[in-house]
Amino acid sequence: MKYGYYPGCSLERNAIAYHESAMAVAPLLGIEFKELEDWNCCGATEYISLYALPAYALMGRNLALAAQQQLNRMVAPCSACFINLAKTDKYMADDPRLARLVNEALAAGGLHYKPGSVRVRHLFQVIVEDVGFEAVAARVVKPLYNLRVAPYYGCLIVRPTLQQLFDDPEYPTSLDRLLRVLGAKVVDFPVKTHCCGGHMTQISEETALELIRRLLKNAADYQADMIVTLCPMCQLNLDGYQEEVNKRFGTHYRLPVLYFTQLMGLAFGLPPNVLGFGKEFIDPTPALAKIGAEPPAPEKREHPSKEALPMPAMPRQDGGKP
Amino acid sequence: MSTAPLSRKPQARIGVYVCHCGSNIAGVVDVKEVARWAGHELADEGVVIARDYQFMCSNLGQELIEADIKEQGLTRVVVAACSPHLHEATFRHACQRAGLNPYLCEMVSIREQVSWVHTDREQATAKAKALIAGGVERVAWHEPLEPLIVPINPTTLVVGGGIAGIQAALEIADSGYPVILVEREPSIGGHMAQFDKTFPTLDCAACILTPKMVAVGSHPNITLLTYSEVERVDGYVGSFQVTIRKKARYVNTETCTGCGLCIEKCPVRVVDEVFEAGLGYRKAIYRPFPQAVPKYPVIDTVHCTYFQRGKCKACQIFCPTQPKSINFEQKDELIQVEVGNIILATGYDLFDCRRIPQYGYGRLANVYTSLEFERLCNAAGPTGGEVVLRDGVTRPKTVGIIHCVGSRDSKYNSYCSVICCMQSLKFAHLVKERTGAEVYNFYIDMRTPFKDYDEFYQKVLAEGVHFVRGRVAEVTDAARHPGEEGKIIIQVEDTLIGRQRRIPVDMVILSAALEPRRDAQEVAHKFGIACSTNGWFIEKHPKLDPVATMTEGIFIAGCAQGPKDIPATVAQGAAAAARVIGRIHQTHLALEPVRASVIAERCSGCRICNNLCPFNAISFREDLGVTEINPALCQGCGTCVAACPAGAITGTQFSNEQVFAQIEGLLMLDFSGKPVRRLEPLAAAEPAFF
To answer: What is the ipTM of this complex?
Structure first.
């Protein structure tokens, strides 16, 4: 399966671990990437809030280039890049006036974009939809037995306004399922779609640190060994500001924050050095040392007391055998 | 019944009557001009008299028509007034009184189709003229028809043994007519039997329901078929043939005394997902609840050790009757019954709260559904009526009740489930009464209409229950602040103070929506009725005919028609019974002769029409190789007439001649009311395919 690849600025800098692990894992899943030539910034979250039209034009340029280079199936690994590109395409399709204005701007560079001609998806979405859990399961050689993970989706990837909805916007479970396929023990993580603070770290640190604290506290409350993310912004905030949170609130969190591609790589038996390890603020080594060679003994079902009432039956949640 | 093709337009003396309907029609349409025009311009088409009148439907208006029929020798009548749904019967009767066959009268709707939907007087007047011209052309082709008289079997089938079905069955049985009551579950009682108290009077549900259940069980006029389902319905109003599957109970009801020893000795305990709503257990051989009617248990073969592994038979071994009442060899039985009318009272399903994962049901132990809470409160329930957390012992100190879960939400059901506000108030009162806990109600709007309901709301307010207006965002155990640890936190925007609030509680009750039964569509198809877009059975008229359906002889009652509380359900059960009793009293029924029929010589036997009939009126005669339409079952919808590729099906009152003539009439005028070139008469008798 061939895809156009839009790395975005973070995959070249702070999230290079995400880029490296994605590149290492992709061939094993039959994914081939071709990087979009001459791509530019997606505008992140700020530009669109300040100057909407130039922001759409900025993203429109990437879409126009993708169409020109015949990369009609684009992958963006960063949630912000993904949402900006997908949103621009949809809004241009829904609003002919916006499409006309954006194309007026693009014409200055000899470009034109016809809405709907490029489909942009998040890397995680492509793995769920195109590769599938079974194909992932088939690649697992070193299951992540005994590792307790908190699946963190962030606020962007399952937003309901886009037509490409692939999971429940309020309580998604596809990352839970992927991690279970890798052999990890997934904890319930009720704040899985709550905000990581985004760029609030630069504007109102107090606000951002409180948001980050809530996420760390919840993962720790559920005794997760680590948080697994699929967005560079989330990773940066939770990892890079964890010490700051500890200082501010007198807490002692040491929760590594890794990309789902890094855990896929480990489960696929790839060496850590090709998966971008070593760039984290919180050292994941102690957590990763917990990975056992043997599957954990089946959890003893606590014998309910005589008085206890039965719990409602829930659908089975395992996504194939590792 | 079949319309022999006519080729030449019949001669007729037609009277045209244009109604003012006060200003309803006359305010937009120039009715005097319309009548004048019809009298002059349509004289060649057979119109001998055309009048306008203030209210044609009044006695005086009707008498006008009757006098003209007699004095002018009219042979056809066209009334241009409201929709035929309202006054067609009125004018047909007027014709009949004057000695004219009622089916020689045609109504033209110039109110619903003209004056109420147009504002331009000139164009509206032109359209009224065109519609009347269509009616005049058409009525010439009308034929005198006689209604079909069918006898009515006095036995009634009631499907569903909840309170609606129970009420309907008792009303009919008490008036002396036989009833067959079919219930899917092992006992009658329905959802009401699961409840603890009923709002607003707080009387115990079982105390008021069980006398009725006992009455059903012992009534000489009621044949009770529990653990049974309707498999097939044939026939038509007055004489339906119904096939009922009586599922094997594996208990011989002739000898069983209902002593319950088999239940006591059964070693298999399973979660009871139906009667106990998943909150309690039952055995593999069970009776849903102590007051079950009938008293006989059933074996759940999916969980029974004998049926799964071939040994055990504890129930049979311990059965004290001679001969033993447990019969593992019992088979499903198919029973054929003949009935005249059918009442569907199949009830509702509770919304599956797992569909809103952010409310935590199934993940967070102490989130309950409304039905679970009913069982928790019930003295005969799993906790003996103790309001406790899922551990079975701890009393909650704070309880949150969330309204509209799955209702009034475009993602799930856009409708209001009607009962949730009052039910939540009842829960709040019961929690307070039993535990003294602080109670928070989270609502969008409080809806407490009907007798003594708002008084109950005021009472609960006075008891100190908190009310927060806002749709709950999430129910979570992710503690954020001190004081939230170990609690369930309800995150909500309090729209009265304009703030986000987090309210930690010990227990959450989700007032879940009422939904149509999962198989409502299938059941509707089986009985030849229809479901609304939301999935509820559709009544004949939402205001004036709420328990009848578009299919003659099929009535509906209770929540199957839409969400409603117990008083409304009982009223509908009784209303459906009254309609049926009225029918039975008539002994015979006159059916509208608007029917489709097959011209056998033209039918190729392609069977395209066979599965299209929404009323199951079409069958195929294998011996003759042609399709046949049952005239009593046919409702005259015309689907098969349009579908037949050979033009072999014709509809009375909708023959090709009539429809083509009407179209021709409509095309006499252009939109400004100017006459257009007369079209050559169409070769109406032969369809275009030939």
So the answer is: 0.89
